[in-house]
Each structure stands twice: as structure tokens, then as C-alpha cells.
Design goal:
The complex is a heterodimer.
Chain A: H1 12-20, H2 24-46, H3 49-65, H4 76-98, H5 124-135, H6 139-150, H7 155-162, H8 166-183, H9 185-188
Helix pairs in contact in A: 1-2, 2-3, 2-4, 2-6, 3-4, 4-7, 6-8, 7-8
Chain B: H1 4-15, H2 20-30, H3 34-53, H4 60-70, H5 83-107, E1 129-136, E2 139-142, E3 150-151, E4 158-159, E5 163-166, E6 171-175, E7 181-184, E8 188-195, E9 198-211, E10 219-223, E11 226-230, E12 234-239
The chains are: A mainly alpha, B alpha+beta.
Chain lengths: 194, 240
């Protein structure tokens, strides 16, 4: 009898196959792998960390119940991104219906974000500034930046997940990075390496 | 100091494609070159700042436990099922298939245009050839399906979607199918791609001159600063 493989040793395709066979432990591994990405994508759209985590959680639950519909099992992450995006849009729509007038988005105030060398982490205001900046990127740029910087996928892996050519994703990544570097220049100048 | 090679390594680092041996080579260079070090550190800082800003309060392990506890019974598997289902499969599946075929003929092509989540077509488009009209000096090209940079020759095949990088005093003119040309001088990085039936020129840095001849399709120029569309004009774009 072959030894049971661990989630860490499996490709994404095999992990999805094991989940469909009934092994929830492998779905747990997928959750751990892509939790950061799902939260970041939701956060870049919604803006509220708690609500973003709720949306990310709902997205994983929905993905699980529809997992049998995933045609290419090696592209779970790209598929999950679409679910997170749709859930985020639904969430914003519901929020606007419940409390009209409270969702207008204004440009962040021009505040001096230069840090002293003693500050080890970003303040809440600075985090919000970074999230707003990423949130203003075109959707495709926001997606590749999140998958690259938050999840750590390479441009080739991102291209596979999104069904795009590697060259296209590289261009998007470089353009997104140039935009972010320009917008975040005052903030990033003195941020200490953690 | 010629830092072109190290600039490419820094780009690979941004793309997550830098190998350990290449990282060692790059780090040795960064100890000596303040320009490259500043470029590398800027990239690392943006990454760290984004990672920090989007870090979740709930750890992945906590999320895993919480989500697993809320999952419904296992998802339906295409291959799963009881013995009684297997017994009916030989008769039921052809009947169902026949019914769907009948419905499909009645309703027509429109049904297949609905694409639900998770079933999008990901067929790659056929590569579109771009001609190298003239070439001087050293030009590097990275084809869309490749991870490596190759030196471009006048007879090389290049396509929309390829990345180009010119060095020093080099010069290249690319001619598109509609007769439009894009001329690139030294120290420039750009790519050409399809966009809404027309062409999109993405200039990462450097200078490019375009002469657009087609008037029925858009010609879009994208730089880190923004995006403009041009029809039937001649213009030069620079990004520092």
C-alpha cells in the first residue's frame, strides 16, 4: 500500500484531487497557502481588514463547495482570485444598500509619511495609505502584485494561474511596480527592513 | 561600470525568478555598486511595505482551523458515487446526453457563450510576427514563453508579447503588420502587445519613437505614468 503523501509534498493539482476524494486535510493546506493572498485581494477592494477576512473565509468555503467545477486543477489560486473578487463586489454592493452614503471613496489626504529610522513597522494610517494606493491600481495589476508580493508566487506561476502568457504577466508586474514605487516613494524611503 | 547584466538580475528578482547562484552574483555586485544597490533596495522596500500593509490579523493556521470547521460535507466528486449509481450509469448517461443535445440544438450557439466561474477558456492566442526592419548594436529579447534573454539578430523572429531591452548605443526599428514602426534607442525596455484589436506599446524606461499608419485600430502607449491612445500620428515617448 503506497504511503500517504503529505500536503507539502504534493502539487496543487494533486492536492485538489485529494480534496475531491474526501481528504479535507489537503484543503486545509490550500487555505494556509493562499489565505494571505485572498485577504489581500479582498482588502484592496473593501478597505476594512475584518470584513476582508470575512470575505476571504466565505470565498474559501464557496470554493470548497464548487471545487468539482474547477476544470484545471493546477489553477486553484487563479480560480480563487475570481471568487474573492466577486465576493468583494457583492460585499460592497450589500454594504451600500444597507448604509447608503457611507461608501464614497475619497482621495487620501496629502500627509507627510516620512518615518524616522526608529519606527519598526507601519502605522495604521500608513497601512491604509499603502492599501489605498494598491487599491487604485488597475485590477490586473492589483492581482499580480498581490500574488507576487503577498503570496510569493513567481511571474511564471502567476501566469499559469491566470491563464496568461508569462511575458504578459512580466509586463504587468513591472508596470505595477513602477506605479507603486512612484506613489509609495515618500513612505518607503525610510521603512526599516523587518 | 556596465550594470546591464545586474539590472536584468534585479528584474528577475522582482519577477521571483532569480536562482540562488544568480542571487549570490548579484549580492556581490551590490556590495560594490551603489546605483544597483539603491535599485535593488527600492524593489525590496516596496515588496516589504505591501506585504506589511496587507498582512492578516488571522494567521494562515488559524484560518485553516476556522474554515475547516465550517465546511459542509465533502464536495461532489466527478468520479465518486455509490454502487447503485454505477449500475444506472450505462443507461442514464446516454439519455441525459441525448436530452442535452436536443436542448442545445433548439436553443443554439448562445448557450455556449455563458462562461461560469472556473471554466473560462484559457487557450493561448497564435503568436503575431513582428519584423525587425533595422538593428544596430546589442538588443536583448525575452520571448513570452521563455525565461531567458537572447541577443537579437536581424534575422530573428520576434512576436507581439516579447520584451525588448536595448543597451548602450544600440538602435532597433520594428515594423508591424499594418506598416506602423517603432524605433528604440539605447537603454530602453519595452514590449508590444495586442490590445482591443490594436497595438499596445508598453515603455518601462528609455525612449521610443512610433510612426502609426493604421487609422482603424487603436495604438496605445502605456508608461508607468499613464496611458494614451494615438491614431495615424508620429510621436516620441520617453520614460526616465
Amino acid at each position: 500500500m503506497p504511503a500517504k503523501s503529505t500536503p507539502d509534498a504534493c502539487s496543487e493539482e494533486k492536492m485538489v484531487a485529494r480534496v475531491l476524494e474526501g481528504d479535507k486535510e489537503f484543503y486545509g493546506a490550500l487555505v494556509e497557502r493562499y489565505w494571505g493572498m485572498a485577504v489581500a485581494l479582498a482588502l484592496s477592494k473593501i478597505g476594512d481588514p475584518t470584513q476582508a477576512e470575512d470575505v476571504a473565509q466565505e470565498s474559501f468555503i464557496q470554493a470548497y463547495s464548487h471545487l468539482h467545477k474547477l476544470r484545471d486543477r493546477s489553477r486553484f489560486a487563479g480560480w480563487l482570485c475570481k471568487i474573492v473578487f466577486q465576493k468583494s463586489v457583492d460585499h460592497i454592493r450589500k454594504r451600500s444598500q444597507e448604509k447608503p452614503g457611507l461608501i464614497s471613496v475619497s482621495e487620501p489626504e496629502a500627509i507627510n509619511y516620512t518615518l524616522s529610522a526608529a519606527d519598526p513597522i507601519l502605522t495604521d494610517q500608513q497601512r491604509e495609505f499603502v492599501r489605498d494606493t494598491v487599491g487604485r491600481l488597475p485590477a490586473k495589476f492589483r492581482k499580480v502584485i498581490t500574488m507576487r508580493f503577498v503570496t510569493g508566487l513567481s511571474s511564471v506561476e502567476i501566469a499559469h494561474q491566470l491563464g496568461k502568457r508569462p511575458g504578459t504577466v512580466r509586463v504587468w508586474l513591472h508596470r505595477a511596480y513602477q506605479l507603486l514605487r512612484k506613489e509609495l516613494a515618500p513612505l518607503a524611503e525610510e521603512v526599516k527592513e523587518s | 561600470m556596465n550594470c546591464q547584466k545586474y539590472r536584468i538580475l534585479i528584474e528577475k528578482h522582482l519577477e521571483g525568478l532569480l536562482e540562488d547562484s544568480e542571487l549570490s552574483i548579484l549580492k556581490r555586485h551590490l556590495e560594490e555598486c551603489s546605483v544597483c544597490r539603491a535599485r535593488f533596495e527600492a524593489c525590496a522596500k516596496v515588496e516589504n511595505v505591501v506585504k506589511e500593509a496587507f498582512s492578516s490579523k488571522t494567521t494562515p493556521a488559524e484560518a485553516r482551523a476556522s474554515i475547516l470547521a465550517k465546511l459542509s460535507p465533502m464536495p461532489v466528486s466527478e468520479a465518486g458515487g455509490s454502487a447503485s449509481w454505477a449500475a444506472y450509469r450505462g443507461v442514464l448517461i446516454p439519455l441525459i446526453a441525448g436530452a442535452f443535445l436536443f436542448v442545445g440544438i433548439l436553443i443554439g450557439i448562445a448557450l455556449v457563450r455563458v462562461i461560469p466561474v472556473g471554466q473560462e477558456s484559457t487557450e493561448p492566442q497564435a503568436p503575431v510576427l513582428v519584423k525587425v526592419a533595422s538593428l544596430e548594436g546589442r538588443i536583448l529579447v525575452k520571448h513570452s514563453e521563455s525565461d531567458t534573454w537572447d541577443e537579437l539578430a536581424p534575422s530573428s523572429d520576434v512576436y507581439l508579447g516579447d520584451l525588448f531591452q536595448s543597451t548602450g548605443k544600440s538602435h532597433i526599428t520594428l515594423r508591424l503588420a499594418d506598416g506602423s514602426t517603432v524605433t528604440v534607442n539605447g537603454d530602453t525596455a519595452l514590449s508590444l502587445d495586442m490590445c482591443d484589436g490594436g497595438i499596445e506599446l508598453t515603455l518601462n524606461y528609455g525612449t521610443a519613437k512610433a510612426v502609426v499608419t493604421g487609422t482603424d485600430k487603436p495604438f496605445v502607449i502605456t508608461t508607468p505614468q499613464g496611458r494614451i491612445e494615438a491614431l495615424g500620428t508620429e510621436f516620441t515617448v520617453s520614460v526616465e
